[in-house]
């Protein structure tokens, strides 16, 4: 140390060597002024050549070696103020040559264990930068990295010093046209993820200041730090949230005000980031991201967004069932606008990618989400039938699963989709088969939702085709109990629903007898339904023969309940035509006998009283006259086939009897 001290004495003189590391700031300041004058003297000679630079470098090396690298804090403080004095003495004309000995040693002190040393490091670099101006930007990345550390410092004075330095660096950057923004953005995009609130404030301030520079196009760099801005919306610090929100609002306005091509480019690069924001846990983040998506969709009228439809849809659907009312409201509005935009688009767009999003969202239990997904499927089936035909098979199972949803609105929407699918090629039979399979697998659903599902399908599909397809499928079905239940539901809808009115009226026409036959045999699985169908189509001979056979049936509760329902149905306006036929017993004596037979079979409860009162209207004298005189042929068309059909009915009935015997035996064994 003696040798270097001698060298220091030779360069700086005894006063500087003694007072520069003094505990007193004032003494250090006086020594620093002497160092400044010394450096100025080097450059005051007329022809210094390289001598002044060499002497300056020697002085800098001494300050670094003997002061900044000294274990004593006061020495390091003295060294820092000494370096600042050298920079001031060099002035702007000469400082560039010596920055490599000025800036790196100071930056190293940013990590000094003593807070006062770190503070003086800020002050020292401030003076160096003030002199060097643009030249100091050579070390910008290291300076910025150091600022990030100091902004997170535990010492308040160090933070204040860092803020002063930061403001100067910003001034230098904004006035320097050659500043490498791209390189800085890469650094910023890494630091923006730091959770320290002071560092986050630093990031926001830099983004804001650079965005205010006319020559800097921050929109082109937005994808690199946008996710970081969205993450700040979830910060616990209110100022940071507001600062991030202000930044995001400004960038969104810039996108909206930019030209179509630039807007398309930026939106294309940030859309996935915004969608990710829509899925954030924090409400404010989701709301802000959704506002961005809403504006993107609004801009879709003037720019091309076709490649982004799947991403936009993904983000919007994620929010339509949000627990926050405002988010849900904006999402629903945005969804409607997006649906309309895609629906009216004449350009090609990625249908498979859209379907992938919809399939994923159909897993959501929310009513609004599922209905929205199904609306999209309907729209795509209408607008892009060719492309949708390629993906229909993967839609089947998810949509059929949706039929189990507890909300009727979802079920109705799913049925509308299935109806549209049924209109494509051979899919009608496939949809019918899968529907029957679903009902067979889930009897509870058939019982609770069967009528709703079938009526809705009758609304959207050709009723005749639906019924004949189901009838054909029933002929192959082996589960007799299922056939019994299904026929009852289909028959009730056929005879009572407004959706099937045209079809049931068609069954009355004599030239449609073949259509009736196609239903009749499958209907044998439910005798009471068969009877009601025969009464409706005026096949009274067949009806009477069926009633005769009912006498051989075991009078189960279910059977009697169905008879009770049939009597009440016959009293409805739908069967007014049949009731009027009772006024002409000569022509319809088998009808009268069928109804009288029903009365004989039924217990004397309310339904019996209804039927009994109806039959009393037919006066005994008129009945006697009708039975004694030659009658007019029944309007039915099955006379020639009646024997064969009844034989078939007996066979089906016997199968059901045997089935019940087996089922009862199995049940008894299980109980024991």
From TrEMBL:
Q: Membrane among the record's keywords? A: yes
Q: Where are the HEAT repeats?
A: 102-138
Where is the secretion signal located? none
Family annotation (Gene3D superfamilies) = Leucine-rich Repeat Variant
Keywords of the record, alphabetical order, are: Membrane, Repeat
Q: Which InterPro entries match?
A: ARM-like, ARM-type_fold, HEAT_type_2, Vac14, VAC14_Fig4p-bd
The subcellular localization recorded is: Endomembrane system
**UniProt keyword annotation of Oxidoreductase present:** no
Domain Vacuolar protein 14 C-terminal Fig4-binding per the UniProt entry, residue ranges: 444-618
Primary place of residence?
membrane
Any Gene Ontology CC annotation: PAS complex
State the Gene Ontology BP annotations. Answer: phosphatidylinositol biosynthetic process
Which family is it part of? Belongs to the VAC14 family.
Q: What is this protein called?
A: Vacuolar protein 14 C-terminal Fig4-binding domain-containing protein
What is the taxonomic lineage of the source species? Eukaryota, Sar, Alveolata, Colpodellida, Vitrellaceae
